[in-house]
UniProtKB/TrEMBL annotation:
<keyword id="KW-0028">Amino-acid biosynthesis</keyword>
<dbReference type="Pfam" id="PF03447">
    <property type="entry name" value="NAD_binding_3"/>
</dbReference>
<protein>
    <recommendedName>
        <fullName>Homoserine dehydrogenase</fullName>
        <ecNumber>1.1.1.3</ecNumber>
    </recommendedName>
</protein>
<keyword id="KW-0791">Threonine biosynthesis</keyword>
<comment type="similarity">
    <text>Belongs to the homoserine dehydrogenase family.</text>
</comment>
<dbReference type="InterPro" id="IPR019811">
    <property type="entry name" value="HDH_CS"/>
</dbReference>
<dbReference type="InterPro" id="IPR001342">
    <property type="entry name" value="HDH_cat"/>
</dbReference>
<comment type="pathway">
    <text>Amino-acid biosynthesis; L-threonine biosynthesis; L-threonine from L-aspartate: step 3/5.</text>
</comment>
<dbReference type="InterPro" id="IPR005106">
    <property type="entry name" value="Asp/hSer_DH_NAD-bd"/>
</dbReference>
<keyword id="KW-0560">Oxidoreductase</keyword>
<keyword id="KW-0486">Methionine biosynthesis</keyword>
<keyword id="KW-0521">NADP</keyword>
<dbReference type="Pfam" id="PF01842">
    <property type="entry name" value="ACT"/>
</dbReference>
<dbReference type="Pfam" id="PF00742">
    <property type="entry name" value="Homoserine_dh"/>
</dbReference>
<comment type="pathway">
    <text>Amino-acid biosynthesis; L-methionine biosynthesis via de novo pathway; L-homoserine from L-aspartate: step 3/3.</text>
</comment>
<feature type="domain" description="ACT">
    <location>
        <begin position="351"/>
        <end position="425"/>
    </location>
</feature>
<dbReference type="InterPro" id="IPR016204">
    <property type="entry name" value="HDH"/>
</dbReference>
Length: 427
């Protein structure tokens, strides 16, 4: 009997696209048994046809999207170009033409997920995006399928390898932020412009995607409060060690009675928590459900082959659906319309480090300002005294963001407060 062949097109041949191409060829001998049919990359869309691409069959390359779109034999489109346009238009074209789509594009899914999933549902097509969050770590499929029997109340994670590497080096090797960033850039973990990573924007997009799926209600990137790691200093790291904690850039999403809380920011997290042991460029996502209790997913969050692993897993899933004629079975799971809580109303514990005048009555004044703004103090530490200046570290109980913000604004107006050096949330 003639072997059935499922044809796919690859859009983009950068780091991830090359990884996908390599991995498909590496698994060529088992693909038929895995899927029930052969899988073939029949076309690859690239920008520059003249560029030499070692190990890639040049006859597959094209710079014409219409050539792929109009090829009726191509059933799966794998988008690994990144960016919003032209990726969004191409994916919509493909779905409207009845082609199934796999993407690794977190920017696109975080911003236009509803539109793309609606187009897929309309055409009874698969639209899968496991690689859009946490690279090679399976998290989208577990949230949509394996944990579908749970009411999930919390998703928190380290979902940016660059920032985790930087904070690991600061913590373990006493590097400054600038030194650790330079090392991350040298090793290829950080881009030439690291803004999206170090300011929390990359993690924010991923958390929007995870929260949407976990809580069955649409969360977009604009809903996510984002704060990066550029203000974390060696002094903050030293205090974290003293408090038996580490500092991690966490994506945090909670489903509460008053709405969804979602943000990305550095947090002190106790060494006993499973996320505290996640080092270097590794990622991890921690999930709490009413039935499963606590579960954590850990692994490589980026890189050529780890990300390709997630992409190919989706491609194999789509190919199986095609083979067994059951495409479009898992579409958008956002059937609720839950409110997004204003971040000012979110409650957090805080670690505050400030420079004050070393004179009687200063601590009493600080305590009064905090009391006036409903900020309860859990701990005060004074270690460094220099001439007429002292460093105070204050740890608060849980307090609404806007109460702390108002208190800090008033403190900054006081002559006895020389500087508020650090404001870091505590898990």
């Amino acid at each position: 009997m003639e072997k059935r062949k499922i044809k796919a097109a690859l859009l983009g041949l950068g780091t991830v696209g090359t990884g996908v191409y390599k991995l498909i060829h590496r698994r060529e001998d088992v693909m038929e048994r895995t899927i029930g049919a052969e899988l073939e990359i029949s076309k690859i869309l690239v920008h520059d046809l003249k560029k030499t691409r070692e190990g890639v069959d040049a006859s597959l390359l094209t710079n014409c999207w219409q050539e792929i779109l109009e090829d009726e034999e191509i059933q799966i489109v794998i988008e690994v170009m990144g960016g919003i346009e032209p990726a969004r238009s191409m994916i919509l074209d493909a779905l409207h033409a009845g082609k199934h789509v796999v993407t690794a594009n977190k920017d696109l899914v975080a911003e236009y997920g509803r539109e793309l999933l609606d187009a897929a549902e309309e055409g009874k097509c698969d639209f899968l995006f496991e690689a859009a969050v946490a690279g090679g770590i399976p998290i989208i499929r577990p949230l949509k399928q394996c944990l579908a029997g749970n009411d999930i109340s919390e998703v928190i994670g380290i979902v940016n390898g660059t920032t985790n590497y930087i904070l690991t080096k600061m913590f373990e090797e006493n590097m400054s932020f600038e030194e650790a960033l330079a090392k991350a850039t040298e090793l290829g973990y950080a881009e030439a412009d690291p803004t999206a990573d170090v300011e929390g924007l990359d993690a924010g997009r991923k958390v929007a995607i995870m929260a949407s799926i976990a809580f069955h209600s649409r969360v977009v990137f604009q809903d996510v409060y984002t704060e990066g790691i550029t203000k974390i200093t060696s002094a903050d790291i030293a205090y974290a060690k003293e408090f038996d904690s580490v500092i991690k850039l966490l994506g945090v999403a909670h489903n509460t009675e008053s709405g969804i809380e979602v943000g990305v920011y550095p947090m002190l997290i106790n060494k006993e928590h499973p996320l505290a042991s996640v080092r270097d460029s590794f990622n991890a996502v921690f999930v709490h459900g009413d039935a499963v209790d606590d579960a954590m997913f850990y692994g490589r969050g980026a890189g050529e082959l780890p990300t390709a692993s997630a992409v190919l897993g989706d491609v194999i899933d789509v190919a199986r659906d095609i083979e067994y004629q059951c495409t479009g079975r898992i579409s958008c799971t956002c059937y609720k319309e839950l409110p997004i809580k204003a971040f000012d109303d979110v409650k957090n514990k805080f670690f505050l480090r400030m420079q004050v005048k070393n004179q009687p009555g200063v601590l009493a004044c600080i305590a009064k300002v905090f009391g006036d703004h409903k900020v309860s103090i859990a701990r005060v530490v004074q270690k460094r005294v220099r001439d007429h200046e002292a460093e105070l570290v204050i740890v608060t109980e849980k307090v609404k963001e806007y109460h702390l913000k108002d208190a800090l604004h008033e403190l900054q107006e006081m002559d006895s407060i020389l500087e508020i050096s650090s404001v870091i949330r505590e898990y």
